[in-house]
Design goal:
The structure is a single chain. The protein is mainly alpha-helical. The protein has one domain. It has four helices and no strands. α1 packs antiparallel against α2 and α2 runs parallel beside α4.
Length: about 170
């Protein structure tokens, strides 16, 4: 196992731990009816996908596509790009899920089903800040990963055509 992959796996483990701690704090916030615990839980849960994307981006950036590379390197680059793109979609989905939950919370607050105005306000601010920070950042990392994946696919197709023509 190469050193870069070890650090990536460690970073993914940290992202999973941050998410798990966020869930645990959220559960305790629910039990204790604590607004501050709930807000910390929200921040941790929304931070975890970003940590995962950053770690996968670091691993993906270590290879990139190399013109004239051998087929195994191209396949590895495609797999890394696919993994990064999946993590980006997951991070984007988590932001939209959090925003949709904020809409539900506001509906419940305004209809009188719950009485947690302070939490709903702060939760909305956290979700808006996360969306404002994450979405452009994710877009900025998504486009190069898609380009690398496409370039590697083209080079791999050319490699296969050369191989079949020489056979």
């Amino acid at each position: 196992m190469d050193r870069n992959k070890t650090w990536t796996n460690l970073a993914l483990g940290i992202a999973a731990a941050v998410f798990g701690v966020g869930i645990w704090i959220g559960y305790n916030a629910w039990l204790l009816a604590s607004v501050s615990f709930g807000l910390w839980a929200t921040a941790l849960i929304l931070t975890a996908p970003g940590i995962a994307v950053a770690s996968l981006k670091a691993r993906h950036g270590s290879l990139g596509y190399i013109p004239g590379a051998a087929a195994p390197q191209l396949i590895d680059c495609i797999e890394r790009a696919d993994l990064l793109l999946r993590a980006i979609r997951l991070a984007r989905a988590s932001i939209f899920i959090a925003i949709s939950y904020a809409v539900v919370l506001w509906f419940c607050q305004l209809s009188g089903m719950i009485s947690a105005r302070t939490f709903v306000q702060f939760y909305t601010v956290i979700c808006a800040a996360a969306a404002a920070a994450y979405l452009p950042w994710l877009d900025r990392h998504e486009k190069p990963a898609q380009a690398d994946r496409e370039n590697c696919r083209i080079l791999l197709a050319e490699f296969k055509m050369e191989r079949s023509a020489s056979a």
